[in-house]
Records
---
Amino acid sequence: MKPAARGSPPSFDAWNAGLGAAASAIGARGFPDALAAALRLLTPFQMMNGFLYSPAGRAFDLYNEKIVAERSIIVDRYLAGAYVLDPFYDAVRGDAAERMIVMRELAPDDFLHTEYYRRHYATTEIGDEIGFVLKLENSFAGVLSLSRTGAAPLFAEDELARLRSAAPIVCALAARHWFHVPGLSLDIKDATPAARIEHPLLTRRELEIVTLVLKGHSNLSLAAVLSLSPNTVKVHRRQIYSKLAISSQAELFRLFLN
């Protein structure tokens, strides 16, 4: 595991100036940069981006303008359906209250060994991620993420504490800026269905297990979530792989979410 970072807290004057600049830029193209500059006074990070989730469970692009080189992975594949495996997606679907969330606090126990993690995080070298949950129009929710990439260390506990303390004002400013969900018409929002994990050969219980496996739950975690014995979970997984004529999670991922 990477060592935690050690940033220092900003001066009160610098933080106020940063917030003032962000507030003044609400509704303008310069808002994301102004907000990122203010947040970098609290802690360093390499990437800020965001996604939007409809009440029906569909994901949309909220803010990914700075992502160019890895866009096909971070944005395109995510919006094509991989978002259903994102712990942030599950967190927002379960509770859209404005707050800060931390990926490593939400991820299932086997998340680091999933095909989703390998393709989305390992490939893009995202090592740590936090998110600010935003309440937007028509019951949409957004998550604005800050990520550490490459050799950058994990967010330290004192940095997470500063970000949590800042969450109310950060969420308020970001929600005001993105509240009207620019670029999406109401008919698109309402008509676009959410991605689903389904297969005609599998039972509802087996599809539930497939979903949890792809999200990163180990057999023990599956057993706890589904109130089954670990042996029963193993039997279900063998039956699933046999029905689908596959032998690995990579094949399972490709079958449902390639």
Note: The chain has two domains: 12-190, 204-257.
---
Amino acid sequence: MRTFTSLLCSVLWLAVSAHGQSVTWQLDTSHVQVEGTSTIHDWTVQVPDVHGTLTMNGDQISNVELTFEVNTMVSGRGATMDDKTKKALKGDTDPQIIFKSTQITSKSSNQLIASGDLTIGGVTHKMDITCQSDGNGHFSAIVPLTFSQFEIEPPSALFGSIVCGEEMTIHLELQFTH
């Protein structure tokens, strides 16, 4: 009887211990694009190389980290525009845009706020990003930013006759798996 009781206690202890364990999910697929305006036309840049992790403690998200590779961004408007984008975002000295959460707050069953630090071009800015979630590792968000928040000169062309607007928006569709 003592052996059974000891075994039962051990199993219960393991179950309680495992419940408090954190589990890391990896970014599996993503669709990330940056949109903005210019004096001539709106523009869109695709970000094909994105890496990320999401840490779960029980059923709560405790941490999110995302890395966007600047030098893989593609505008669809040719190499010259791609190079101007990479140069403006300081891809030669700071080749990654990085978001690291400092706090995750659940607003509802399908909405959360990821507060954290967003670093672009070596400049870090505190952000609150509202995300929609399906509860199965899929997250979407729309993040409005300005170039000046990150001390970035908006890209220009043709001796300054074409200039990007100050505002840009990042659209995120992220699927994490564990």
Note: Residues 2-19 form the longest helix (18 residues).
---
Amino acid sequence: MLRGMSKRSAPLLLFALLSACAHTVEPTTVSWVTQAEAAPRTDALTAEDIVLMREVSDVELSPDAKLIAHVLRVPSALAEPGRAVSQIWLVDAAGKLEPRRFSPTGHSSWSPRWSPDGQRLAFLSKRPGDAHTQVYVLSIDGGEAEPLFAATSSIGAFEWSPDGKQVAYSTARARDAETAAHEAGRDWVVNEDGGTKTRLFAVDLSTGESRELVTSREHVIDFCWAPDSSRLAVRASEQASTDHTMMYSSLYTLEAKLGSAGAELKSLTKTAGKLGHMAWSPDGSQLAFLGAADIHDSTAGIVYVVPSGGGEARALTAGVEATGSWLDWADAGTVLLLAEQGTATTISAVAVAGGAPQALIDAGPICHELSYRAGKSASSRSWAKDGVLACVGDTSSHPREVFAGKLSTRRLTRTTVVNPSLLTRKLGAQEVVQWKAEDGLELEGVVIKPVDFQPGQRYPLAVLPHGGPEGVSLDGWTTRATYPAQLFAGRGYVVFMPNYRGSAGRGTAFAIADHQDLGGKEFTDVLAGIDHLVELGMVDAERVGMGGWSYGGYFSGLAATVYSDRFKAAMIAAAITNWISFTGTTEIEHENSLVHWKLWPWDDMTLAWERSPLAHIKQSKTAALIVHGQADTRVPTGQSLELYRGLAHLGVTTQLVMYPREGHGISENVHGLDFANRFLDWFDVYVKGEGATGE
């Protein structure tokens, strides 16, 4: 049972039906999955395994709920430096037929979208000879993929109209006057109002002719069709900057009947702060969306509903200790919600009439995205019996795969095995750990034990804090190149991934509990967790290191300076080291100051400086590995340079590594391999004390 969820029976009969179902996770009945999972785990996990790991995303159920289209990310070979290729695959939702590749070879394909009749699948791709990314379409029976229409600029997103007569699509296309000015050299930017806005179009599939739908010049972020194909719901902002799209977007509706002319967006409701996923009710009378409590809420995790004709939105889950990430309508009176809750995810039914959400699936994989088909008529209660879900999910033993199942069974079954070699790798046992903060606040996180863990023995500790701070560590697959958790377990470390105050997964109050106190109680939450592991007899308090990215890197910067006496080593990646200079150079200065600090630096320069790792470098004696992508605009490289130069000047053991072409993370395999091994080796040398590391 998770916080804020009630399993008491509700007026709807569907809840009575579902409450009779068990919550146990049964073994899969899919033969190829069963066979693969039976492989003995005898081999060590390597950094090469992680950077070459395949991963699924963007699941899309066919209209008859029999097939699941999904994207498979395939990394490039280490001998061929570069980024991954995306492929589209199909898998049988019932698990009777093995997955098959759908998209042609040789180039990336992504964003699969079924035609309303289920006979064709459209997707985005840029083939040799294409000047722009196009929408391609291919019959499910095979054949050659062809452009659905001739796009004159690269398409970012598209959606079929429910009647199959139109396709709405977005594209970042400059207007003619803007292009002419740029070509004439008049390309200056005034008051940071730069960036090409994304525009919204629709193509008449009977003629191939496109028309622009929005004439009021907003920057279009997201859109979805009304059930009768007459309107679109649109999320848009006045500017195209990252900060504005995150903090100042609004919801609108737009007339989009076949043959209609472009129009201005019509405001749907007043919102404040971040916005997320949205969906029309089956009859088109309402829109459900995810949004923030207010401008200072760090997550868009609350379910709202609003009449589609406009009006005041009603919050349905404001008091629930969860963070919504996806929603859809199960029927005219019920919204399906995927949410992070603690270290797990749940799928719940939220009654539009009110009442506590009812947990439908709260065991099984960690779900990251869903696709839902109602089974019969969404206006009836048949969804409880026949509604089908497809999910991108992972567990502590494997990365993201495709899962499917009916709501009536209350379980999801794994249908793909995209990384068979990982099933032979030895992994450390993973579990959820709970402890109390200094002020009594109950906290939790994820712990991985060393692969050959022996009770009673104390091990070195690798603390890997998540970013955000509104990120969250979940009890699923925890390992990637930037956070090589299981690789640390393979080298004999206990790994600790804490969910400190400010994390997602426990509602708005918990997410904003660090306001005006960044680097304060939230960091001592982590120290209390370390102390708890020491008290359990698992960890050697004299051999502790911390490493993380972004806000997790900020924590690691604090570990290396303010709390240097407690940490032997730190890996500080893409990190804020000086809150004052960061605010003046980041692309998210509003988001940072409004939803994280709830304070601007110039309102309290003393506090902003005091909470900066750079302010405390004179007390540092922690070996600091500092890492940054040279193309990072979220946290500019100056943050790492300031810290590195200060520590180096003071004679503190430090190393700075910059990765060309990388932004706020790592995407190239050779870079990922170097980073993971460098991170592990740094801790082996300075936490374990095993000798010098190379360049």
Note: The two ends are 49 Å apart (CA to CA).
---
Amino acid sequence: MQVWSDSRAVEDYKNLLAGKAPADTTDCASVIIGAGKVGTALADMGLGDDVVLRRGDAIPAEITDGEGNARSSFPIYVAVRERDLEAVLKACPDDKRADLVFLQGGCVEPLLKRYGACSKDQTQAVLWWTFEAGSARPIDGEVSLGLDSFGEPKVAGQTSVCGKWAGALKGRLARGGLPCETMFYNDWRRVMFERLIFQSAFNLVGALHGYPTVGYVARYYTQEVDDLIYELGRSLRSTIAVTMLLGIEERLMTYAQEMEDKTPTTMDPEDFEWRNGFFYRHVTTPARRAKFPDPCEQHSLYLEYGRDNGLLTIPELDS
């Protein structure tokens, strides 16, 4: 499927011109699944009437807000690791699935599609946050890059949300002093893949060279990571008809330099499926099976070099 033959590429633009913006929502009593750093931060920014669930707890049909009113419609913030997400999807009642708000850091799109939870109305967020050691207070990662040629501000690391409960999440984060941009789904999807490219490129280069933070990678291996960013972004256009916005290399390099020592590089085997594994499983593997050139050749070579030299432990590469 090519970009120019896919009407979805311009669907949001047509809706904007037609005034078909999604209905706005406001923050309210919510359900939060997960009591880790993200779930705790969301609860702290709420109004004190949220229901916080552990993994495996049943999602209630109704909750009561701070004024004693029963609510049957409310956001359900899913603040669990990617590896735990499928259990939440399986346990969610069908009539509550549209209220799920996905906050995962990696690309969970293939999993959500299997459960019918990836429509343009589903609420999904990219949180460009970091947490200092020992602190549950998120640090926003938005970085200013000055003005573009039209005099509009350019930013990197912009927390973004789309879907039914986008306004509710934006309002909650604003209460906590954290910026958030609401978007149409297709625009948000580009931001999600930009975050994925950041994770995949900087963490892989950092792991192979033994550099502990994304700031070190940006400073000492600029061209290497820049080439990876370009390759991964280009592969999306040719395989799933997603074209990354111009300037992605500048945005990600600036973000990495700004984060400096706040964001360590890591290649956790349990997170591989949701980060570099997306490109290896959904781009490289189908191309190789079809006897086509690998659109992510450098990325694949780096992964296999790391495996062969004992720098990476990724069972999927051996299958």
Note: The CA atoms of residues 27 and 171 lie 6 Å apart.
